[in-house]
């Protein structure tokens, strides 16, 4: 459990299903460079329909989670899914479904976490309109900073990804050309920062309080 979470697709492409509180499911086509911000209480699933690898980076605020500092996953079905603890009769009433259908939904999936699907299984198809306001491709978005032979920066904000405001997380995608560098800077608003290297190599220097090199 977490209060907010962000996703970044670093490799590959696939499909994501997102159910916001009191809203219908949205099915999105996702690909490398996509950023998605989601508030608390969202149910998601992720599906790789290709033969190539799909890599999703999960980042979130866990200060108020079940165990501070760690993600706590709550699965709906599977070997330790939430609904496996209820009787099928109870769940069928809650979902307004036939008890036999509920039994299949709750008990058929024996796996947990990452599950290998049968090749004949059909997942929901993504809808183009579902991406609106839900995902932003940082590699295709308009540049906020563009320095010739230096680098480029895309900043996620409430204008290009509205849910960022609800989540309370922000992100910058920085691309540096050869022999370029980011000038020294610091966070003046006490925000915590996590840096993830998507591609390439280089050097970074971190200086803490009292000018001590970390």
From TrEMBL:
SUPFAM superfamilies given in the database record: RmlC-like cupins
Q: Which SMART domains match?
A: Cupin_1 (SM00835)
Q: Signal among the record's keywords?
A: yes
Query: Record's InterPro entries?
Result: Cupin_1 (IPR006045), RmlC-like_jellyroll (IPR014710), RmlC_Cupin_sf (IPR011051), Seed_Storage-Functional (IPR050253)
All copies of domain Cupin type-1, residue ranges: 2-103
Which region is the signal sequence? 1-16
Superkingdom of the source species: Eukaryota
**Chloroplast: is it a keyword of this entry?**
no
Keywords, A to Z, come to: Signal
State a single Pfam family of this protein.
Cupin_1
**Name of the protein in question:** 11S globulin subunit beta
Which organism's genome codes for this protein?
Morella rubra (Chinese bayberry)
Phylogenetic placement of the source organism: Eukaryota, Viridiplantae, Streptophyta, Embryophyta, Tracheophyta
């Amino acid at each position: 459990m977490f209060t907010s979470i962000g996703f970044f697709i670093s490799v590959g492409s696939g499909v994501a299903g997102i159910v916001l509180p009191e809203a219908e499911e949205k099915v999105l086509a996702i690909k490398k460079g996509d950023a998605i911000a989601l508030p608390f209480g969202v149910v998601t699933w992720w599906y790789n329909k290709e033969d190539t690898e799909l890599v999703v980076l999960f980042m979130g605020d866990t200060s108020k989670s079940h165990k501070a500092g760690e993600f706590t996953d709550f699965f709906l079905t599977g070997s330790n899914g939430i609904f496996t603890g209820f009787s099928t009769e109870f769940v069928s009433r809650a979902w307004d479904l036939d008890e036999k259908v509920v039994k299949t939904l709750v008990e058929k999936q024996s796996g947990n976490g990452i599950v290998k699907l049968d090749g004949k299984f059909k997942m929901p198809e993504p809808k183009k309109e579902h991406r609106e306001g839900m995902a932003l491709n940082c590699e295709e978005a308009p540049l906020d900073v563009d320095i010739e032979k230096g680098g480029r920066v895309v900043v996620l904000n409430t204008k290009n990804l509205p849910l960022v405001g609800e989540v309370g997380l922000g992100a910058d995608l920085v691309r540096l050309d050869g022999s370029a560098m980011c000038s020294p800077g610091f966070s003046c608003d006490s925000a915590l920062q996590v840096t993830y290297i998507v591609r390439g190599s280089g050097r970074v220097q971190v200086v803490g309080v009292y000018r001590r090199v970390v």
